[in-house]
Every structure is written in C-alpha cells, then in structure tokens.
Design a protein that fits this description.
Keywords: TPR repeat. By secondary structure, this protein is mainly α. 75% of the residues lie in helices and 0% in strands. The chain contains 24 helices and no strands. It is elongated.
C-alpha cells in the first residue's frame, strides 16, 4: 500500500514539474516572432505549431504559419492554414492576397474565382493581381464574357501595377490581336525585366511561335525569379535536352532531384543526359530508378537498354528491350541491340525472330546476321537457317555471305 502511494506521489510530482515547465501560447508566439526577425524559418514554424497546440483558434498563428508554408512552396498546407485564418476573422486585407496565391499555385481555379474580394482594406495592387488571375482562369475555362467583364473592371482601378498592363495583354489575346499582345508584353518587360508573369508569358509565346532559343532564354530567366515553379523547370530541362544543351539540362534536373529523388521523369532526363555524356553506368542507374516508378515507360527502357548494351550487360539489355520490343516500330535500332544481346545470351532462335523485323538492311547488319546463321547452323536449325537466308537476300553488301550460308545449309 505504501509502495503504491509512493509511486503515485512521484508520478504526480513529475506531472507538476512538467506543468510548471510548459510555456504559454504568448511566450511561444514571442519566440516565433523573434525567430522570424532573425530569419530562422524552421524555428518559427515549430513555435507557431506550439502556439496552435495550446490555442487552436489563434488566428495570427494560423496566418503566420500559412504565410511561411507559402514561402517554402507547401501550397496545400498554406491553403489550409490561410483559410483557417480567414475563418477566424484575421485581417482579410492580409490573408486574401496570400490565399489567392495558394489557390493559384494549387491550380484551384474554382476556389480562386469564388474568393470574396469585398474587403475594403485590400490594396489596389493586390486586387488587380487577383482579378488578373481570375480573368486568366476564365479565359482558360473558355468563359470569355466573364473574363472581359473582369478586364473592364480592372481598367477602372487606378494603379501602376504591372498586372494592369498584363490585363491589356489578356484583352488583346481575347480579341485575337496577337501582335499587339506581344508588344504589350515587351512593354511590361522593358519596365520590369524580372516580372515573373511577363517572363513566363513571353517564354510560352516564343515557344508557340517556334522560336525555341528565345523561349529557352525567357524560361531560364523565369526559373531564376520563380524558383518554386517546378512545372516550368521540368519544361526547361526537357527543352535543354531537345536542343542538346545537356549540361544546362543536368543543372536543372539535379536541383529538382534534391526535392524528389525518385521522380520518374526527372530520372529519365538525368539518364538521357548521362547517356549523351557517355557515362553509361550512371545512365543505367538513373534509368533503373525511373523504371521502378514507371515500369512501362518505353523511352526510359530504351535508354536503359542502350546504356546496358554499351556496358555489355546483355542480360539487362534483354530484360529492358525484350519487354518493349512488340511496341517498337519495324526496323527500330533498338531491335538490333536486342538481337545482338539475344545472340550473346545463346537465344539464337529469338534473335532470328527479331531480325525478321529488320525492314532495311545494310553492311552493318552483316556480322550480326552471319553470327545468327552460325548459331542456327550449330544447333541444326536448317529450316530457320533457310528462312534467315531469305532475309539476307535483301542486303546489298560487299562479299558473298549468302553463298557461304547456302553452303552451310547444303552441308547440313
């Protein structure tokens, strides 16, 4: 009885000590504010979460936490916290522009369009920016009349915001006045060379017109000023690869891989870049990472198969290329790699079936076909060898391999 009472007293004492050590929500908020002033974002976030653990209805903590999530690119968390701040009646003129940005980043156009903008405290520059993106959302949703209505409203707002000028770009696009729209974009960039939206629109317009060099240039500038817009970083990396700017492509991809090391498309590009740099080990490595997430992706299988072939890893060549062979067009170069690998692995009959898909043959195929013929001859496959002879008659190379193979058939 005495022992139980002692344990209970000790337990209560521990709880009392812990209770005395617990800070108040006010103290946590003060520490969060201090961390913010010192640029310690992670510390600030921890302290704000402590505030909300004690006071879930603390609107300021919700707002500050949502703002930090937005700054680090956690759009979904930012949206959640900022919406809660609005529900808890935090200053709408501060919250609305940020929650609008979260909706835009999330691609939540329906929520962006429903956003209440009646708060008298919202700055004109913020209001124009939100209304610009609402007009853009209506255009993308093919609701041109509603877009034009917003454009007309923006025209009445007195502000020097670049988004008001960009609204004129939208109007020119609505009216199919593309030349005037491009002039308007140039005017915005002349005034604000690093304006993110103007850079992005100029990049996309350039690509649309077939000016890839300009598109890449403006997209690279956009990446510098909008480091969290990963969708367009992907596009930039792909464009670099398409135009054989492999070092630049790798720079973009490496940065993105620090965020998501297993993203299949990123690993596919990394594999392709490494292959073109003749780093076949790494090309195969990154291709295999991509394949783990997208096992049916044909381009990645092709890179993996080609890299494995260069490394003379014929089992892996067979593994990758045999899986996609039926989906490849006739005479695809990968079929030659597959046939060579099948032969190396002793699958002469499979190699024979593969070469039947060679529509055009030249001298480079002579050694391969001759080797397959030799393997068929050794295994006594007379009928298969005769069939292969028919294939070789389509080849116009120097020498007389056909007669040699014919002699082998006769001899057997």
């Amino acid at each position: 009885m005495f022992r139980k009472r002692t344990i209970a007293m000790v337990f209560c004492s521990v709880l009392a000590i812990q209770g005395c050590g617990e800070k108040s929500a006010t103290e946590y908020m003060q520490e969060a504010q201090t961390a913010l002033s010192e640029g310690s974002t992670e510390t600030a976030m921890i302290q704000l979460k402590n505030v909300l653990r004690i006071e879930p209805q603390n609107a300021e903590a919700r707002f500050l936490l949502g703002k930090l999530y937005l700054e680090r690119g956690d759009w979904a968390f930012a949206q959640k916290e900022l919406e809660r701040a609005l529900e808890l009646s935090y200053s709408a003129d501060e919250v609305v522009p940020l929650v609008a940005e979260a909706y835009r980043k999330m691609g939540a156009d329906s929520q962006l369009l429903k956003l209440d903008l009646k708060s008298k405290g919202i700055k004109k520059s913020d209001l124009v920016k939100i209304r610009y993106y609402q007009a853009k959302a209506y255009i993308q949703g093919q609701q041109e009349e509603k877009a034009q209505s917003i454009i007309n409203e923006i025209k009445q707002i007195k502000t020097n915001s670049e988004y008001k000028s960009l609204t004129s770009y939208l109007e020119y696009k609505l009216k199919k006045q593309d030349d005037a729209a491009l002039i308007q974009l140039k005017a915005v960039l002349d005034k604000s060379p690093e304006h993110p939206e103007a850079l992005l629109l100029t990049a996309l317009e350039s690509l649309k017109q077939g000016d890839a060099e300009a598109g890449i240039e403006f997209l690279a500038k956009y990446r510098d000023v909008a480091p969290l817009e990963y969708e367009y970083h992907f596009l930039l990396a792909q464009l670099y690869v398409d135009y054989k700017k492999y070092e630049k492509a790798e720079e973009v991809v490496d940065e993105l891989l620090t965020i998501n090391a297993n993203q299949p498309y990123l690993n596919q590009i990394k594999a392709l870049v490494r292959f073109h740099q003749k780093d076949f080990e790494q090309a195969l490595h990154f291709a295999n990472i991509s394949i783990m997430s997208s096992p049916e992706d044909i381009p990645t299988r092709l890179v993996a198969g080609a890299a494995a072939f260069e490394l003379r890893k014929f089992e892996e060549v067979y593994q990758h290329l045999n899986l996609i062979a039926s989906a490849l067009p006739e005479n695809h170069q990968a079929l030659r790699l597959l046939a060579k690998s099948q032969l190396e692995l002793g699958y002469a009959l499979e190699a024979n079936d593969t070469v039947k898909r060679f529509v055009e043959l030249d001298e480079r195929d002579a050694i391969l076909l001759s080797s397959i013929a030799g393997a068929l001859s050794q295994s006594g496959e007379k009928r298969k060898l005769a069939s292969l002879l028919c294939v070789t008659k389509r080849i116009n190379w120097k020498g007389n391999l056909n007669s040699i193979w014919s002699g082998e058939i006769v001899a057997k």
